[in-house]
Design goal:
With about 300 residues, the protein is of the alpha/beta class. The chain contains 10 helices and 12 strands. The strands form 3 sheets. The chain has a 5-stranded parallel sheet with strand order 1-5-4-2-3. The model has no long low-confidence stretch (mean pLDDT about 90).
């Protein structure tokens, strides 16, 4: 692998020293998706009560929110470059901005720190590939709070500006056709970012209304996104452990990688970890199992059926 890309992560200490920097843009990406309406209630349930001083709210967990295509059939669909440029500029992000994204834990989930941080890595993934100078706050909101750092209840919005999206913004996006090519021709590696239980076909209700098949995309290796984050601190495990885990998964150490999960959220955390280790040619299968599982003609492997 090539050199680590630690500039993609910033510490709570680093951010605390720069809260007054006029070029810093901080975004709280905490998600709280309703189980019945599937809307994001993170703004009123988290951000309105407390957030890092100077942080605005980024509604990334809204299935058809500010960084998604509102007209797409599937939720959380990567928007057009035109919509992405408009959305980023509307958030007050310019070419001179240094953006920091963070999120709080998702209570009630098996891995609250990791699950919560996936909303921040999803935001990072879109912003980074659009050409934004963006970093993830290591440990997120929980670490900030645990360290007794200042908090605010004052909501803010940054002044809108103009942003021009990178012409190759979609390099971080993989399609169904890309994944099929990888399966049939070995054009790149495929990584399943879901749990080992899901990967092995041992989940009872894996993908809800999006399909009933079990297991994983054929030829994928498994790197569970939650295993990349320390359960107590919410921080990414160190680069040596990351590398060991990537090697242990069977992932080859060169070439393009496509990550996927259920809806293209957790896959961004695994993709982000690969980026930290210097793997630049990484894409996320945006539609993930929402699309793949629902089409019986697309190849899957179910180890539990063996």
């Amino acid at each position: 692998m090539s050199e680590d890309r630690l500039e993609y992560l910033v510490s709570t200490d680093w951010l605390a020293k720069r809260l007054d920097d006029p070029d810093i843009r901080i975004f709280d990406c905490t998600g709280s998706v309703g189980t019945t309406d599937f809307l994001n209630h993170g703004r009123e349930m988290h951000y309105a009560h407390h957030h890092i001083p100077g942080a605005a709210y980024l509604d990334i967990a809204n299935p058809r929110g500010v960084l998604a295509d509102p007209g797409a059939t599937l939720p959380f669909t990567w928007p057009s470059s035109e919509r992405l440029a408009e959305a980023i500029g509307g958030l007050g992000i310019s070419v001179t901005s240094r953006v920091v994204v963070y999120a709080g834990p998702n209570a009630g989930t098996p891995n609250p720190a990791a699950v919560g941080q996936t909303w921040a890595t999803r935001a990072w993934w879109l912003l980074h590939h659009a050409g934004v100078d963006v970093a993830l706050l290591d440990g997120g909101w929980q670490k900030w709070l645990d360290e007794g750092r200042p908090v605010s209840t004052q909501p803010i919005d940054y002044e809108p500006t103009t942003f021009v999206v990178s012409p190759d913004a979609r390099r971080g996006l993989a399609t169904k056709e890309d994944v099929l090519d990888a399966v049939h021709n070995g054009s790149c590696a495929i990584v399943d970012a879901l749990s080992p239980k899901s990967y092995n076909g041992e989940e009872d209700k894996q993908y809800g209304t999006f399909g009933t098949r079990r297991g994983h995309i054929t030829d994928a290796v498994n790197i569970y996104f939650a295993s990349l984050v320390d359960a107590d601190s919410g921080c990414f495990i160190d680069s040596d452990r990351l590398r060991d885990q990537l090697c242990a998964s069977g992932l080859r150490n060169q070439g393009k990688v496509i990550t996927y999960c259920g809806a293209g959220i957790g896959a961004t955390m695994t993709g982000f970890a690969l980026k930290l280790c210097g793997r630049d040619d990484v894409a996320v299968y945006d539609a993930s199992m929402m699309e793949w599982n629902g089409d019986p003609n697309l190849p899957m492997t179910d180890p539990s059926a063996a």
